[in-house]
């Protein structure tokens, strides 16, 4: 019976408050991790602000239902604040001028890319604790950060945005941040590599999904490296590294030790 | 996409669990030329090439973008572009053709003609005889008189009910078939004088105009569901030729350090939003081999749904290599989207080649012919290619040395 990772994540929730988790994928699609964290935090009763830049709401909703959570219900109850990037971008370009109310979070697209203030304001106001809230620690989830560079935002601005969010969400609100980035060993996208490397240094936990070096395999879809930073940088504790292989199925992901895929045993 | 989500939806609060779920297939299959995916009910379109549909997991999903990385001379990518549009004509979809170098009317005139096989021809013939017999048989029935007043067989329009068709590249589509569908055009030289009415967001003028044009068509024709009273839904097939080339006003293809590397990616992002909110699908060909800055192609890939690269053998040493004599080039499937699901229908075969033979274009698994030479060991593709190179330079002895040792 392959070991499941959920007890590991449950333990994380107790220990992990005010931390930055980096989801990273190389030569494969790491979005299954995003879906997992979304449903995990919603089930755990946390207030989640999800900045979904690449896919539509119904996409996440359908998958979340397979994982046992209804995003529509979570939105109605106020547990989930969902930013549908594609729709907001449409409003920026084709919508009416908005003078009243909150500015569009994706307004930065029409600017020079030097800052992400509009999105930061959105995140901060969404996760600010209101009196009637009974949710546990707030969580900011971003899918994905690499897209911002494609929209003309400078890498420094992306890092500033994460920094501001860490101050607001991790330090002040004692919440967690989970962001997804894409990277490649032989990537020529220097701006992206800069962002990814910098985030690697800043994050407390890195989940790195990689395609197998030997190529495509039907039974093992990839390898997941879990790097947990030592709790105290002063004491120079070693990073904890775990490697699992995984197979993605329709309703869940199974993890197993390397070479122990069900197809092989 | 919300309008197309099917199956697995939980009943709303208050409804009992005995609520009968409307079978998704009956509702969705109402749109001609589409079929729901077997796995997750996602509505699929044919790309015009049944063999490509297989490779892509059944077809192209509605609301997604198919990006083709052009081969060096753009010959085969242009073929795929035309197949996509031709399929739209046969299915009765609406077309939106955008180009910066060719007049869209000329592109449409050169689309390949559909090949109707015998079974389909009989179907079409049957429909014709049904119309004739309907008009003739008004006499009363003597034995089955109870069925006298039942309606006769309804004749559906000539749109084909099949998913995926074959085309004859040596013939062009008939003008009658062309006139039967509604299509929209965007030819950049015509649009240069007009000012864009939307915010440019620092995008190239050509891209901004194109986005505005696409959005206008989607809104006016109701592809985004803005006319719910319209019973008959249809698909909008968008084709954009050679996006990113110099003719679009973008210098990503001709400069090592382009002035604005974000124009193309911003365009793709906004286009993605437009596609996701409408009943449409888009094919874009990009001269990727001309883009020096590989970072741009990485970002373009991440912003596209399905990405396919074509590599033709023209002008390369593989053109004369006996291993590849049956094929005209290789096809690389760089990306297949995961939509509404954790998994995607990725095919196990990674070595694919295409061939244009006897007017038909097919994509097949690349397989090496049996090694009937005297040597025991089989040389790999690489070895043979290398040895061919060496042979051509006249170093025969060296070539033999490169092969595996033969005990």
Characterise the protein shown here.
The complex is a heterodimer of chains A (265) and B (407). Chain A has nine helices and nine strands. With 265 residues, chain A is α/β, with parallel strands linked by helices. Chain A has one domain: P-loop containing nucleotide triphosphate hydrolases (Rossmann fold, 3-Layer(aba) Sandwich), CATH 3.40.50. In chain A, strands 3-2-4-5-1-6-7-8-9 form a nine-stranded mixed β-sheet, sandwiched between helices. In chain B, 30% of the residues lie in helices and 18% in strands. Chain B has twelve helices and 14 strands. In chain B, the strands form three sheets. Chain B has a nine-stranded mixed β-sheet, sandwiched between helices. In chain B, strands 1-2-3 form a three-stranded antiparallel β-sheet. In chain B, a hairpin with a 2-residue loop joins strand 13 and strand 14. The longest helix of chain B has 19 residues. The termini of chain B are far apart. The chains are: A alpha/beta (265), B alpha/beta (407). At the A-B interface, helix 2, helix 3, helix 5, helix 7 and helix 9 of A face helix 9 and helix 10 of B.
Please specify the SSE layout and strand pairing.
The complex is a heterodimer of chains A (265) and B (407).
Chain A: H1 6-15, E1 20-26, H2 31-43, E2 46-52, H3 57-66, H4 71-76, E3 80-84, H5 85-94, H6 117-127, E4 136-143, H7 146-150, H8 155-172, E5 176-182, H9 190-202, E6 205-210, E7 222-228, E8 240-248, E9 253-256
Chain B: H1 24-28, E1 34-36, E2 43-45, H2 50-55, E3 60-61, E4 65-69, H3 75-91, E5 94-99, H4 104-109, E6 112-115, H5 118-136, E7 166-172, H6 175-179, E8 183-187, H7 188-191, H8 205-220, E9 236-240, H9 263-276, E10 280-286, H10 294-303, E11 306-312, E12 329-335, E13 352-357, E14 360-365, H11 381-392, H12 396-402
Helix pairs in contact in B: 8-9, 9-10, 11-12
Family (chain B): Belongs to the ELP4 family.
Region (Disordered) (chain B): 1-21
Protein name (chain B): Elongator complex protein 4
